[in-house]
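Why should sequence recovery work at all? Because a backbone constrains its sequence more than one might expect. Tight turns favour small or flexible residues, buried strands favour hydrophobic ones, and helices have their own preferences. The token representation captures these environments compactly. In the example below, the structure is given first.
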């Protein structure tokens, strides 16, 4: 199968990667770049485990063809840390027990970051709406919402 060059910026670093026309952004991130924080869940855009931020918007990377990511700016959960220092959202998820099995956590955090980047002081309902595309089977969502509210109220972003 023919491969095409995809040029994109991921977590501030520029890459040129060969991709098949059927490869998704999720495939590219996990297989080509080794960024396994972005999880493969349903592969149909229903669970949100693969959420990344592309050009400032939360997207399901399993639904984006790698070729459509050409020229785009992508941020994954790995791109949130600064050296050994966790991002305030990551710290709050730990502090407030918003993680259990952890599978949904990267996608939840990326959805929350996209929301807070756009609206630093959201209401609880706006938070719930922003993470509504992310499924969690462990936490019941309340601790996740509390962690996001904490970060927004502290103005740590």
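From this structural description, the recovered sequence reads:
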């Amino acid at each position: 199968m023919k491969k095409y060059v995809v040029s994109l910026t991921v977590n501030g670093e520029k890459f040129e990667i060969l991709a098949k026309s059927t490869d998704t952004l999720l495939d590219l991130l996990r297989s080509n770049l080794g960024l396994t924080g972005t999880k493969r869940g349903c592969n149909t855009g229903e669970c949100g485990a693969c959420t990344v931020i592309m050009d400032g918007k939360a997207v399901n990377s399993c639904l984006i063809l790698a070729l459509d990511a050409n020229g785009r700016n992508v941020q994954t959960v790995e791109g949130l840390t600064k050296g050994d220092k966790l991002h305030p959202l990551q710290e709050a998820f730990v502090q407030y027990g918003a993680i259990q099995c952890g599978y949904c956590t990267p996608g939840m955090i990326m959805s929350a970051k996209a929301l807070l980047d756009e609206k630093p002081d959201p209401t609880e309902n706006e938070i719930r709406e922003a993470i509504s595309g992310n499924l969690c089977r462990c936490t019941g969502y309340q601790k996740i919402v509390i962690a996001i509210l904490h970060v927004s109220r502290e103005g740590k972003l």
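A few observations help interpret the result. The chain has a mean pLDDT of 96.
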